[in-house]
TrEMBL record, chain A:
Pfam families: ABC_tran, TOBE_2. It comes from Ancylobacter radicis. This is Spermidine/putrescine import ATP-binding protein PotA. SUPFAM superfamilies: MOP-like (SSF50331), P-loop containing nucleoside triphosphate hydrolases (SSF52540). It is an enzyme of class 7 (translocase). It catalyses: ATP + H2O + polyamine-[polyamine-binding protein]Side 1 = ADP + phosphate + polyamineSide 2 + [polyamine-binding protein]Side 1.
TrEMBL record, chain B:
Residues 66-261 form the ABC transmembrane type-1 domain. Signal peptide: none annotated. This is Spermidine/putrescine transport system permease protein PotC. It comes from the Bacteria. InterPro entries: Bact_Polyamine_Transport, MetI-like, MetI-like_sf. It comes from Ancylobacter radicis. Belongs to the binding-protein-dependent transport system permease family. CysTW subfamily. It is a multi-pass membrane protein. PROSITE patterns: ABC_TM1. Its main location: membrane. Required for the activity of the bacterial periplasmic transport system of putrescine and spermidine. The chain crosses the membrane at residues 12-36, 70-92, 104-126, 138-157, 190-207, 240-261. Gene3D superfamilies: MetI-like.
TrEMBL record, chain C:
Residues 89-295 form the ABC transmembrane type-1 domain. Its main location: membrane. It is a multi-pass membrane protein. It is found in: Cell membrane. This is ABC transporter permease. The chain crosses the membrane at residues 20-47, 95-115, 124-143, 175-195, 230-248, 276-296. InterPro entries: MetI-like (IPR000515), MetI-like_sf (IPR035906). Keywords: Cell membrane, Membrane, Transmembrane, Transmembrane helix, Transport. It comes from the Bacteria. Belongs to the binding-protein-dependent transport system permease family. CysTW subfamily.
Length: 368, 266, 307
């Protein structure tokens, strides 16, 4: 699969080529990965995003060396690493469960990898001290790992994986066990550490918001396939297909028919008869009936007029903004997200008939 | 393909495990095979035969010993199970109270004291009582067996009780059951697998005992194990193998039943 | 108010009484047929020995304890070391330590092997260890005797393989006792080891490999420290009955290769020295209690660590 987001001239850290992974054999075999190809650049924060069971963790475990592809190859700086056991790969993992050794202290945990590599004592001491400082755990260095909090354990796991200066750091949903506030803090901290260390991060998550805020590039996966690779902006604004649009953020789907075709752009007619322009992914010429996606924040509720019309079903206040759920005349639902201002409410009540204005350049044609 | 690295495997471990299992079963299999030997010796194979089983069956000393073993085991296991059930109810699902630690220590003592020590201590006491009272029946063996069976009966009953929801009894009380009715209609039926398992463990333990029996028994009170112990010292014929094999079969059946009772419903 | 408090206290007293009543049968039986006799025996160890066994009642004497390690020469009344006793005690300790070590070396890989089987087959392997565990100790000892006899399967096999030309005399030696004890007590090592390995978090092993530890380093630095409670439990469970073994040395060791258990029996039989027998028993029990104490302290510590 060609990867259009890989335009910049940069060294490739990891390349997965045509990976297939089947668990079990014969007709009952489960295909966890189906011809997956991903290229990860040096120093980038790369995220594998998808719902549970999409194969993202399997791919990560393959890079770490805990699973082996049924077909395909994994290259680290151009070299096939299939034959290397995990302890010979210059790649470290931050495990979802952290997997901190319960019989060792924080300091001993961080030193473990360096000791296994046979580094000199002095180097280990100074490196561990630097790592403790990096994750701000100097005070708790002699604690046992069951005497620290979840957020602290997370930082120790990170320090332990970073201590041997791996070429690539793998992070398997490392923030999923943390509560909301801590998760936000750690997202920023992870970003900081990635830029400070300059190490390539491969991050696995099912949380689309986390992926969008942290990543340089994202690969969206579903059912063992990679659906789209691109920057957060690409993925959010130009979702390649319905799954991606639906999985990332909130989206309204409208049925429309193509009436005119331009370059990367079509004119479509909606069910109401209104006509709008919609963008199309490069090199695709849709015709006939298509699905068009419109993000809720790119639509505006108006008292009269608008491209489409319907009845207000529910108004939900969210503090920063208000969600207005509208039942369209064609019976489909549509959601509008409107920024709140301090002095006045959104001005619509349940049962009101309203129109919806779709901003220019807001619509995207989706592949099914 | 050696390149597929399995994180769980350790080199050589399966081989040692295989050796262990071979070692665990080779002697038993040898013993059983020679029980079916037609020849008089336990080293020369003389073809398949059931004659030693028949001989053992007809041997009145074996009959007496087997019957005695079963009587003692039934009595000891029954008394031990009843006592252990009562003790388990008094010592589980309760906040710690004064005396609880003492009870635990008492109940577990027979597990911790070496058998030979208990055996000679009982010899000292019971031999004196025998002289005083003139009674030298099976009672001594039964009470001695009961004592070391109690902790074995106690373990599964206690485990079962601890996994039981104590709100069930409260629900029964809420529905007008007296404490006794709640026990009979709710606790006891739920406890039954634990009690059966405890009884079977106690029965097997009593049946297997050699050391304590050897020191406590009066003349002519051989159980099957002490009879075998006496025979092993003398000239050995496959008759012993036959007795041991029958004994073994009984134990395996009981243990297998125990295994399945325990597995269902936990 | 006062009456409510009284009622509460009465209910509490009632509960305490019923608890004691319920536990009474078990406690009484165990006291009569296990704990009480130990105290009688303790008293016996401080009495003078009777001429034909038993003791001279109420006649205080330290001879029993004295003769555990020392003996009076029958000709010139000089006091010397009871070498026979010491060698038996030494044999008991030595054979018990070796048995523990050998069962650990065999049991550790076996337990690990079982713990790494797929879940549904694991139960079968455990069951296979449990069966010998619950079969009669005498029968298993007897079975081992048939294997290591001169005409037994072991010698036959070795001769058939031309490793040896004539049968090895294993029976009635320390080797025979060792074979028997390892065989009989092996399940006692495997089961607790398996119990702690079953709980082993294999993600920690993955983390070890991820951090550049090889097979040996993972075994030494991660697996063994994590299953240490099982190692200690198994070792204690094997060491204690080994030290007090009676049937195995009697059947396999013959009359000459005695262990402490047989020495105790001897005092109540042909030796006719009940105070010595009682003293030896108390000493054996004390040794076992020390081992148990070590175990309990270790278990409490590791419990505090992981709980």
């Amino acid at each position: 699969m060609p990867d259009p987001s890989l335009a910049r001239d940069q060294r490739v850290a990891i390349e997965a080529r045509g990976i297939v992974k089947e668990f079990g054999q014969g007709p009952t075999a489960l295909r966890a990965l189906d011809n997956v190809s991903v290229t990860i650049r040096e120093n980038e924060f790369f995220t594998l995003l998808g719902p549970s069971g999409c194969g993202k963790t399997t791919l990560l475990r393959m890079i770490a060396g805990f699973e082996y592809p049924s077909e395909g190859a994994i290259l680290l700086y151009g070299e096939d690493i299939a034959g290397l056991p995990p302890f010979k790969r210059p790649i470290n993992t931050v495990f979802q469960s952290y997997a901190l050794f319960p019989h060792l202290t924080v300091r001993e945990n961080i030193a473990f990898g360096l000791e296994m590599l046979g580094r000199p004592k002095a180097e280990i001491t100074s490196r561990v001290a630097a790592m403790l400082k990096l994750v701000r755990m100097e005070e708790l260095a002699e604690r046992r790992t069951d005497q620290i909090s979840g957020g602290q354990a997370q930082r120790v796991a990170l320090a332990r994986a970073l201590a041997p200066s791996p070429k690539v750091l793998l992070l398997d949903e490392p923030l999923s066990a943390l509560d909301y506030k801590l998760r936000k803090e750690m997202q920023i901290e992870l970003k900081r550490m990635q830029s400070e260390t300059g190490i390539t991060f491969v991050f696995v998550t099912h949380d689309q918001e986390e992926a969008l805020t942290m990543s340089d590039r994202i690969a969206v996966m579903s059912k063992g396939k990679v659906l789209q690779i691109g920057s957060p902006w690409d993925i959010y604004d130009k979702p390649a297909d319905r799954f991606v649009a639906d999985f990332i953020g909130e989206t309204n789907f409208l049925v429309a028919s193509v009436i005119a075709t331009g370059s990367n752009m079509v004119r479509v007619r909606l069910a109401t008869g209104a006509e709008i322009d919609a963008t199309v992914t490069e090199g695709w010429q849709p015709t006939g009936e298509v699905t068009v996606a419109v993000r809720p924040e790119h639509a505006r509720a108006v008292a009269s007029g608008g491209h489409i019309a319907g009845m207000v079903e529910n108004v939900v206040y969210f503090g920063t903004d208000t969600h207005i759920h509208v039942r369209l005349d064609g019976a489909t639902g549509f959601m509008v997200r409107q920024q709140n201002s301090r002095s006045q409410s959104c001005g619509f009540a349940v049962g009101d008939r309203i129109g919806i204005d779709i901003a220019a350049d807001a619509a995207q044609v989706l592949r099914d | 393909m050696a390149r597929h690295f399995d994180i769980r495997s350790q080199p050589g471990f399966p081989l040692i495990a295989l050796f262990t299992f071979a070692m665990l079963y080779l002697p038993i299999v040898t013993l059983v095979v020679y029980a079916f030997n037609a020849s008089d010796s336990v080293s020369q194979w003389g073809g398949f035969s059931l004659r030693w089983f028949a001989d053992a069956w007809d041997n009145s000393a074996v009959q007496d010993a087997a019957l005695r073993s079963i009587i003692i085991a039934l009595c000891a296991a029954t008394i031990a199970t009843i006592a252990a059930t009562m003790a388990a109810i008094a010592t589980t699902r309760t906040a710690p109270y004064r005396g609880l630690g003492v009870k635990y220590a008492f109940i577990n003592t027979p597990l911790m004291v070496p058998e030979i020590v208990t055996a000679v201590a009982l010899l000292i006491v019971f031999s004196r009582i025998k002289v005083w009272t003139g009674y030298s029946g099976l009672g001594y063996l039964i009470i001695a067996h009961t004592a070391f069976c109690i902790p074995f009966a106690y373990l599964p009953i206690r485990a079962r009780l601890e996994s039981m929801d104590s709100t069930l009894e409260r629900a029964a009380a809420d529905l007008y059951a007296t404490p006794w009715m709640a026990f009979r209609r709710v606790t006891l039926p739920l406890l039954r697998p634990g009690i059966i398992a405890g009884f079977m463990l106690a029965f097997v333990i009593s049946l297997d005992d050699v050391v304590i029996t050897e020191f406590v028994k009066s003349g002519g009170q051989d159980t099957l194990p002490t009879y075998m112990l006496g025979q092993i010292r003398r000239a050995v014929t496959p008759e012993i193998n036959a007795i041991a094999t029958a004994f073994l079969a009984l134990s395996v059946i009981l243990v297998t039943a125990f295994f399945f009772i325990n597995r269902r419903k936990t | 108010m006062a009456s409510a408090a009284d009622a509460a206290r009465r209910a509490e007293n009632e509960k305490t009484r019923s608890r004691w009543l319920l536990s009474a049968p078990a406690l009484v039986i165990i006291f009569v047929a296990a704990i009480g006799p130990l105290f009688v025996m303790l008293a016996y160890s401080f009495m003078a020995k009777g001429d034909y066994g038993d003791v001279k009642y109420g006649q205080f004497s330290l001879d029993g304890w004295f003769s555990v390690f020392l003996q009076r020469d029958i000709f010139d009344d000089t006091i010397g070391i009871a070498e026979a006793h010491l060698s038996i005690i030494w044999r008991s300790v030595r054979l018990s330590v070796i048995t523990t070590a050998v069962t650990l070396l065999l049991g550790f890989p076996t337990a690990y092997f079982i713990a790494t089987r797929p879940r549904h087959t694991r139960e079968i392997w455990v069951f296979l260890v449990t069966i010998p565990f619950w079969t009669n100790l005498l029968i298993r000892t007897f079975a081992m005797q048939q294997v290591i006899r001169n005409e037994g399967i072991l010698n036959t096999l070795l001769m058939w393989l031309h490793v040896i030309d004539e049968p090895l005399q294993i029976m009635y030696s320390d080797w025979a006792i060792l074979f028997g004890m390892v065989y009989v007590y092996l399940p006692l090592m495997v089961l607790p080891l398996y119990a702690s390995m079953e709980k082993l978090d294999f993600r920690l092993i993955e983390a070890g490999y991820d951090l550049y530890a090889g097979r040996l380093a993972v075994l030494r630095r991660i697996i063994i420290p994590l299953v240490k409670p099982g190692v200690v439990a198994g070792s204690i469970l094997v060491f204690i009955p080994s030290l007090g073994a009676y049937v195995i040395p009697r059947v396999l060791g013959g009359g000459k290769n005695m262990m402490i258990g047989n020495l105790i029996e001897l005092q109540f039989g042909a030796g006719r020295n009940w105070p010595l027998g009682a003293a030896l028993s108390i000493a054996l029990m004390a040794a076992v209690m020390v081992a148990l104490l070590f175990y309990v302290r270790n278990a409490a510590r590791s419990g505090a660590q992981h709980g």
